[in-house]
Amino acid sequence: MHASSTVFSDFAGQWWDEQGPFKPLHQMNPLRLEFIINHIKPLERENLEGITLLDVGCGGGLLSEPLARLGANVTGIDLSEEAIAVAQNHAKGEGLTIDYRNASLEAMKGASFDVVVASEVIEHVDDPKEFVRQMARVLKPKGCVILTTLNRTWKSYFLGICIAENILKWAPKGAHDHAMFIKPSEMNRFLEEADLRLKKLQGVIFNPLRWQWEFSDNLDVNYFAFAEKS
How many CB atoms lie within 10 A of CB 166? Predict the structure, then answer.
């Protein structure tokens, strides 16, 4: 994992503060959930009941909890012991059963999951190609993966780092390294080499007039990817 993971550990106690350093993830959560739910449909299920789902880099559980409420059998893993402790305590307070583990993706055994999600994670790992391969490794036959990340463009540097980190304080300073952002062409290659078929790329933009995230055809900054196991 990249050094920025230590930055997030430093802010672990603020995961559920909607006005804190993880504010953008709170704001993006409705779109993340909508995209996940809509693209799990190829599994031919009416809802998330009975679906096994791994949330990689789950942090304090911002995505794990709503997915568990929708019926998924959620396992959340993160390298930050502090974040996992926050996630466990929050889920307990909400009466939710989620299998949180302070573990790496490599430590997970077997093809156990229908869905593997990594949201705003791959741009923090040192070997994204191997990261995607490990996601595929723990996926059941006909399973799917969903990743959300940032494109490596001048626009993503300006908006994702200069504005988001330095001016709006939407992320801890130093949380992102622009050189580690993932171009869609690179994402497609990583998926193909892991025997995963890219089925959908969805751009996401922040609308300053409505002050909210929206789906877009523009992939220049943030985008979501959905792929199925070959």
Answer: 11
If one counts the domains in the chain, the total is: 1
Rounded Cα–Cα distance for residues 145 and 113 (Å): 10
Nearest alpha carbon to residue 73 among 94, 59, 52, 56: 52
C-alpha–C-alpha distance, residues 55 and 77, integer Å:
6
- Please state at what angle helix 184-193 crosses helix 128-137, rounded to 10 degrees: 40
CA angle at 59 for the pair 173 and 40, rounded to the nearest 5°? 120
From the number of C-beta atoms within 10 Å of its C-beta (0-12, 13-18, 19+), residue 27 rates as middle
In the numeric block, the tokens 């709170």 are attached to: 26
Mean pLDDT, each 10-residue run in order, the chain (230 residues): 48 76 80 92 70 95 95 95 95 97 93 93 95 97 95 74 54 68 97 98 88 92 94
Quote the CA–CA distance of 93 and 151 in Å, as a whole number.
Answer: 36
Can you give the CATH number for the domain in which 50 is found?
3.40.50.150
Instruction: Find, among 145, 83, 70, the residue nearest to 113 by Cα.
Output: 145
Given the structure tokens 């070997």, which residue do they identify?
127
The pTM assigned to this predicted structure is 0.88
Q: Which domain holds residue 108?
A: 4-229
Parallel/antiparallel/unpaired status of strands 139-150 and 99-101: unpaired
d(CA 191, CA 229): 9
- DSSP run (H or E) holding 5: helix 4-10
Gyration radius of the chain's alpha carbons = 16
